[in-house]
C-alpha cells in the first residue's frame, strides 16, 4: 500500500474515532441534562409544591379561616399544574407520580369536608364532642396523605440524583476511554510511521551518502511497495547510470592520457629527430659553398643559399610548433605578475636587437595581472616582436604597452585589459579572423618573415588564463592588440 | 702521458662529420674518439669490450654527449660517469637537438657541466663549437690527475 493511501486511511480512521467519541459524549450529555431536569423537577415538587401544601394545611388546621383556606386551594392548584408538567418517562417514575396524583385528588376530596366542619360554627354544644372526633380524623387523613406525597416526592428526588450521578460517572468513563483510546491510536500510528517511513528513509540516506562518496556499486535495496520503495529504485537506477557514465569517463580519460603521452613523444621526436636532418642540410650546403668556392658561379651559389634559408626556416617552424604545443601542456602557475617590469625587460632586449632603428618603446608603469609569468613573457615577446617587425618600414616607430582605458575595446568582469599598439603597416580588418590561427599570415614572407605561429601561441596562452585576445587595425595606420587577464588580487 | 682526447658520443653520421668539421675549422686539434652509441661510450670509458686493455686513467678531457642514442642513452652514460670515482670529474657537455625540459632537468640532476642545443644553422654551430673549445680546453682549469 502506498504511503499516501496509508496516510489517508489513518486520517479517515482518526476522524471516524473522533466522531464516534463526540456522538457518545453528545448522547451522554443529553441523558445527563434530562436527569438533571428530572431531579430539578423532583426537587421543586418536594421542596416547593408538596412541602408548601403541608405548611398551609397545618396553618389552616391551627387557624381556620377564609384566607388560609384560599391559600390552601391556591397551593393545591399550583401543585396540580406542576404535576401536569411531569418530565418523567420511566414506568417506575410514572407509577410513583401516579400515586402522588391520587393522593393529590384525595386531598381535594378531604379538604372541603374539613372546611365545612371547621367553618360552620352554628353547631349545638352537644354535638361539639362528635365534631371534634370527626375533625381530628379528617386532619389525620389529610396529614397522612400529605406526608405520603412528601415521601414519594423525596424518593423521586433521590432516585433522580442517583441517575445524575450515574450519568456523570458514565460521561467520565467515556471521556477517559476516548482520550486513552485516541492516545493509543496515535502512539500505534507513530510507531507504524517510524517503521514504515523513518527507518527506510534513514537507510536510503545512508545509502545515498555511500553512493555520493563514490561507491557507485552500492545499492539501496529497499523493497517496499510504497513511495520510498519507488525512490529507492530510482536511486539504484541513478547509481547504475552513474557507474556506467563513470566507467565511460574513466575509459575516455585513459584514452586521452594515452593520446597525451603520444603527443608528448611526438613532440619529443619532432624536437630531436626532425631538426637533425635540417642541421645536416644546412651544414653540408655551407660545406659545398665553402669547398666549391671557385667552381660556383653567380647562378648556382643562390641555389645553395635557398637550400640553407629553407632549412633554417623549417627549423624555426619546428621550434615555434614546439612552443605552441608546450604552452598548451605546461602547468599554469598563476601569481601576481608585474606586467610593466616584464614588458620593460623585453622592450630593452628589442631595443638592443634593433639598435640600428629608431624605435620609441613606451611601457606604462604599475600594470599588474594574475598570470603565469613565463607564459606571459611569451605573450609579450611575441606581441612586441610583431610590433617591431611591422613597424620596420616607418621612419619613427612608436610601440606602446599600456592598460586599456575604460570604454576602449571590450570590458570583462574581474579582468584587466592590456594593449600593445604600434604605428606600423597594420592590416585589413576583413582578415582579422585569420589572425590567431596557426600558420595564418596576412603578409608575404619576403616582406615580413615569420612562421605564423606566434599569435596562435599568444591566443592559446591568453585562453588558458581565461582571457580573450583580439586586434584592431587598419592598413597603414598601425595595429592594436588587446588581451585580457585576471585582475591581480 | 694522456692523449687529451675528446670523446664524441653521437649516432648520426652527418652530425658526426659536421662536428668534426666544426672542430677542425676552429683549429681544435685534440684527437676525437667516436662512440656511436651509449654502450660504445661506456666500453671506451670503462675499458671494456673493444677497449679492454686501455688505460682507464687516460681520461678524455671533454665528453660531448648526445641524449638520444641507440642501446644505452646519453643520460644513462652520464649517470655511470658520475657514479664512478675514477671518471666523475670528467667535464661532460650535453650536445643535443632536444630542448625538452625533462631532458634538460634530468641532465643537470645527473651532474652535466653544460647543456647545449645544437642550432640548425651551421654558422651558429661553428660558433658554439668555437666557444666550447675555447672554454673547456683553454679557459677552464681541468680536474687534477
Word description of this protein:
- In chain A, the strands form two sheets. A five-stranded mixed β-sheet of chain A has the order 2-4-5-7-6. In chain A, strands 1-3 form a two-stranded antiparallel sheet.
- Chain A folds into three domains: 3-201, Four Helix Bundle (Hemerythrin (Met), subunit A); 221-329, Helix Hairpins, CATH 1.10.287; 332-486, Histidine kinase-like ATPase, C-terminal domain (Heat Shock Protein 90, 2-Layer Sandwich), CATH 3.30.565.10.
- The model of chain A has no long low-confidence stretch (mean pLDDT 84).
- Chain A is an alpha+beta fold.
- Chain A is built from nine helices and seven strands; from the N terminus they run H-H-H-H-H-H-E-H-E-E-H-E-E-H-E-E.
- The longest helix of chain A is centred in the middle third of the chain and has 85 residues, at 128-212.
- Chain B is of the alpha/beta class and 145 residues long.
- Chain B has a domain at 6-10 and 32-118: Rossmann fold (3-Layer(aba) Sandwich), CATH 3.40.50.2300.
- Chain B has helices at 13-25, 38-46, 74-83, 101-109, 122-139, and strands spanning 6-9, 32-35, 62-65, 92-96, 114-117.
- A five-stranded parallel β-sheet of chain B has the order 2-1-3-4-5, sandwiched between helices.
- In chain B, helix 1 (13-25) crosses helix 5 and helix 2 runs parallel beside helix 3 (74-83).
- Chain B is globular and about 40 Å long.
- The N and C termini of chain B lie close together (11 Å).
- Chains A and B meet through helix 5 and helix 6 of A and helix 1 and helix 5 of B.
